[in-house]
Amino acid sequence: MEVMTKTQLIEEALSDAISYQDYRALTEKHALEGTNTGQEITDALANYTLLNHKRMKRLDKTLKISPEMRQQVENYDRKVTWLVLTESWCGDAAQTMPMMQKFADLNKSIDFKVILRDEHLELMDEFLYNGGRSIPKLIAIDTTTREVIGNWGPRPSQATQLVDDYKRTHGSLTPEFKEDLQVWYNKDKGQNTARDLIKLLK
């Protein structure tokens, strides 16, 4: 079988990609049916999908961008495609994708697209985090040249630090730590994600 180049993998992914609104509709459909996206269907992943649907619905309405950041986003003038690999059960994606859409809403130069990780594992393997297929993964692509100009994920920078520090000390993430991370997200209200995305635009 012919091995595809990164550029070919991106082209293939872009032809499969859907809008954030369509992804939200897909997540809602799975939430209502008690299922989830991805290769593995389990009750736990279905429950996370339901939780994420409710979370994104709330964040879509409540997230705010400061006037300073808003101006920086509005002034961005390079046509860029933000291609995000995710699955419906991913909690970090539910916390961060609504902010990505807020940015895209502010600037027509930012085209925000979504693909499912398990349908694009070869592309995912080009953007591993610490050797793992961690999601969400945002790939920033120059819309005109198709050049990859940056990537982000799987979490906001501060949350990544918290997770990495915890793993270094304890080996793996406990349910208690995951609850603490949830509290962190609730307090942060998407601001760390917004700051990271501003850096990505630069």
Tell me about this structure.
InterPro entries: Thioredoxin-like_sf. The chain has a single domain (about 5-20, about 65-200), classed as Glutaredoxin. It contains nine helices and five strands. It has helices at about 5-15, 20-35, 45-60, 65-75, 90-105, 120-125, 155-170, 175-190, 190-200; strands at about 20, 80-85, 110-115, 135-140, 150. With about 200 residues, it is α+β, with helices and mostly antiparallel strands. Helix 2 crosses helix 3 (about 45-60), helix 3 (about 45-60) packs parallel to helix 5 (about 90-105) and helix 7 packs antiparallel against helix 8 (about 175-190). The model has no long low-confidence stretch (mean pLDDT about 95). The chain has a five-stranded mixed β-sheet with strand order 1-3-2-4-5, with helices on both faces. The longest helix is centred in the N-terminal third of the chain and has 20 residues, at about 45-60.
**Which percent band covers the strand fraction?**
5-15%
**Which class best fits the helix and strand makeup?**
alpha+beta
- What helical percentage do the residues reach? 55-70%
Number of strands: 5
- CATH homology superfamily name: Glutaredoxin
What is the arithmetic mean of pLDDT? 96
Question: Any idea what the shape is?
Answer: globular
CATH topology: Glutaredoxin
Instruction: Report how far apart the termini are.
Output: 38 Å
Key phrases:
Thioredoxin family protein; five-stranded mixed sheet; Glutaredoxin; 13% strand; alpha+beta; Thioredoxin-like_sf; 202 residues
